[in-house]
Design a protein that fits this description.
With 739 residues, the protein is α/β, with parallel strands linked by helices. It is built from 19 helices and 27 strands. α16 links the parallel β13 and β14. α14 packs across α17. The longest helix has 20 residues. The protein starts with a helix and ends with a strand. The relative contact order is 0.11. Bound molecules: beta-D-glucopyranose. Beta-D-glucopyranose (BGC) binds next to loops. The site of beta-D-glucopyranose has 7 residues, from loops.
Length: 739
């Protein structure tokens, strides 16, 4: 038990004794009293200094409570895929404890690929149980920045390119987590869509793109998910840092959305005391202590929201009410989490948590391709248990992919890697060759690995591939700098470390090549033309190898669907179409020139086909869509439309299909995407079974953000509902009219 918790429990039991004597405990400690009353009571007992103490960090991941009043410190941890190992008090070193290994859950791109809100709830709940065990009050996640470019080093921590999909999935994650008395911190608010120059790049964007694309997932997290905290982003937005941004925090978040919780900085995201005081920031974390650029013997009293803020208040330069508002929010957060009395104790790395991780992995893996390697042969997948020999090739088959990547890196208790997972099913029929070397985690993409080393690894793998019945290549990206990693972007879209050449060389000696890509980003797929089977396997955490082996062996029928598009070439992605000012900017400013046409909205509207489209994913069975039936042909602006469609499993094995609903406005006074996701339903079907899926098209689903009036608007006229198995595989279209 840490010091402040001990204090709390002593003071609470002490108070309990007093209660019996005086029959009264202080209002702020009385959980039967309304929250607002408790907060006001505590605030009225606090000194100005105590309020100041509460709104900035005291160590890397902790902020002070009010020891005098028995209000405990707050403890935080990254986020978002598991509870991070303990970090030193005031530097970034790990504290080398032996009791902080945990379950690594699949990365959020993988969660998004499940299209399954129940799994998102299970995820949030399980992670909170681990957080409780580790005595954390706030988990720094989930992340919902929109996937704008395949080069963003942190896409793997987010939920893809579509605001509706991310909105639907972020809410249950937060609810599952917060039901345990652990706060979520949805991040990074907002427009942190690249890592390059993330600390200062000034993002300029239209109101429409902001409201239609980049804000909806945050809005759902706040309004529907009731996230108790939110983390600002590092970048600037229209000239002002996001962590103390008048428009984003005061106007939109706290004004329009009525956010009651705590806005915290990203670590080191504060830059100015006056703006921090006035523009909606509540908690300053991670600033350095020596002139705010590096660590020193100075203390966190030097933070922007510490001594300098106190001085401004004392001089009357900013009103006391700004500080009271921040302290109120911090107290509320504290009462909901650290000071909450009846909290479970939590648990870590349990069979239940491993089952959650495995289930998410099972439903996340996307079958991109499954063809017969030659005429008259059958598709390679699922791979029969009777297969005689499998050669597994690739660094990612054995690599610890929880290491590296930045703040989301995890120290896992157990880790079943792909090679181990495959061996648990196919036993000693499995041989392994590394094939290529990727270098140590966290190190540069171009670590000194000589051609001679790569050549000899490749030769060894190709020689072994000649004698194998099947070659299973496990590659992709990893968590090294300029791969899927915080603090830098990828330099291009290619598969690194000579993997395309290696795959081609393997294919030249053996037609039965299956490729499993582990990444949180789209990669160039030109190499895959002659490869019969390809799976997108994400980063699946502790149970990655199990889920991958489940799908490869057919124990699980794949049902994942891509949460973002794979462009053919980088230039085919909207953000890259307009040159460097659009991405990555000129190092000071950038303009989001593709505007609302992000991801499939761009591919569809500009008729630039993706290599693999948004929403795409195959199965070992087939699904037939019947005729859709709509409740009306015409609706008015307050009516909903109901559309039903039968879906049947026409194959031989059980399967799950995500039926997707997109809406398009045939003609509008503004540019609108051809269609936008507005509903989906994942149905489980036995062979021959048919189920009817029902969608409700609500009035809001027809609207765009009208910049002139700063409000949402639907224009009367013809619309179309598209129902399909992906954003391009549309199986039925339902025209209707808005009167
Ligand atoms: C990251 C955040 C993270 C924080 C604390 C920052 O660098 O951007 O996502 O939560 O560090 O580790």
């Amino acid at each position: 038990m840490n010091h402040s918790r001990l204090l709390l429990s002593l003071s609470l039991s002490c108070c309990a004794a007093l209660t019996q004597a005086a029959d009264k405990i202080p209002v702020y400690q009385d959980e039967t009293k309304p929250m607002a009353e408790r907060v006001e009571d505590a605030l009225s007992r606090m000194t100005t200094q105590e309020k100041i103490n509460m709104i900035h960090a005291q160590g890397k991941f902790s902020s002070p409570g009010v020891p005098r009043l028995g209000i405990p410190d707050l403890w935080m941890s990254d986020g978002p895929h598991g509870v991070r190992a303990e970090i030193n008090w005031n530097d970034w070193g790990y504290s080398n404890r032996t009791n902080d290994s945990i379950t690594a859950f699949p990365a959020l791109t993988a969660l998004a690929a499940t299209w399954n809100p129940q799994l998102s709830f299970d995820y949030g709940n399980a992670i909170a149980e681990e957080a409780l065990y580790r005595e954390k009050d706030v988990m720094l996640g989930p992340g919902v920045n929109i996937y704008r470019t395949p080069l963003n080093g942190r896409n793997f921590e987010y939920m893809g390119e579509d605001p509706y999909l991310a909105s639907v999935l972020v809410v249950p994650y937060i609810k599952g987590m917060q039901q345990n008395g652990v706060a979520a911190s949805v991040k990074h608010f907002a427009l942190n869509n690249q890592e390059l120059w993330r600390g200062h790049i000034d993002v300029n964007i239209s109101d429409r793109a902001l409201h239609e694309i980049y804000l909806p997932a945050f809005k759902s997290a706040i309004i529907d998910g009731d996230s108790w905290t939110i983390m600002g982003s590092y970048n600037k937005i229209r000239g002002q840092h996001a962590c103390h941004n008048e428009l984003m925090l005061n106007k939109i978040l706290k004004g329009d959305w009525g956010f009651k919780g705590v806005v915290m900085t990203d670590w080191g995201g504060a830059h100015d005391t006056r703006e921090a005081a006035l523009n909606g920031l509540d908690l300053e974390m991670g600033s350095y202590t020596n002139g705010l650029t590096s660590e020193s013997e100075f203390t966190t009293d030097d933070y922007y929201m510490a001594r300098p803020y106190l001085k401004m208040i004392e001089k009357g330069e900013v009103p006391m009410s700004t500080l009271d508002d921040k302290a109120r929010r911090m107290l509320r957060l504290n009462f909901l989490t650290a000071m909450k009395r009846n909290k479970p104790l939590g648990s870590v790395a349990t069979p239940e948590h491993y089952a959650v991780a495995e289930n998410i992995g099972n439903e996340a893996i996307v079958l991109l391709k499954n063809e017969a390697p030659s005429k008259n042969a059958s598709p390679l997948l699922p791979l029969s248990p009777d297969v005689k020999s499998i050669l597994v090739v690739g660094d990612n088959a054995t690599r610890d992919l929880m290491k590296g990547g930045g703040s989301s890196e995890l120290k896992v208790k157990d880790n079943i890697n792909p090679l181990a997972g495959l061996r648990s099913i196919y036993g000693d029929k499995v041989r392994y060759a590394q094939g290529y070397r990727a270098g140590r985690p966290m190190y540069s993409n171009v670590e000194n690995i000589t051609d001679a080393v790569q050549d000899s690894l490749r030769k060894e793998a190709v020689d072994m591939a000649r004698d194998a019945e099947v070659v299973l290549f496990v590659g992709g990206l990893n968590k090294n700098h300029q791969q899927d990693c915080e603090g830098g972007d990828r330099v291009d879209m290619s598969l690194p470390y000579g993997q395309p050449e290696l795959i081609k060389a393997l294919r030249a000696v053996n037609p039965n090549v299956i490729v499993v890509l582990l990444s949180g980003n789209a990669v160039d797929m030109a190499w895959s033309k002659d490869i019969p089977a390809v799976l997108q396997g994400w980063y699946l955490g502790s149970m990655a190898g199990k889920s991958i082996a489940n799908v490869i062996s057919g124990k699980v029928n794949p049902s994942g669907k891509l949460p973002f598009s794979f462009p053919v070439r980088l230039e085919d992605n909207g953000a890259h179409h307009f040159g460097t000012i659009s991405y990555p900017g000129d190092s000071i400013r950038q303009e989001y020139l593709e505007d609302i046409l992000v991801g499939y909205r761009w591919h569809d509207t500009k008729k630039i086909p993706a290599f693999y489209p948004f929403g795409y994913g195959l199965s070992y069975t087939t699904f037939e869509y019947g005729k859709p039936v709509a409740s009306a042909k015409t609706i008015n602006e307050s009516e909903s439309l109901s559309i039903t469609i039968p879906v049947k499993n026409t194959g031989k094995v059980d399967g799950k299909e995500t039926v997707q609903l997109y809406i398009g406005d045939d003609k509008a006074s503004v540019l609108r995407p051809i269609k936008e996701l507005k509903g989906f339903d994942k149905v489980s079907l036995a062979p021959g079974e048919e189920k009817t899926v029902t969608f409700t098209v609500k009035p809001d689903d027809l609207k765009f953000y009208d910049e002139a009036n700063a409000s949402w608007k639907a224009e009367p006229g013809k619309f179309r509902a598209y129902i399909g198995s992906s954003s391009t595989d549309i199986r039925a279209t339902v025209p209707f009219e808005l009167k």
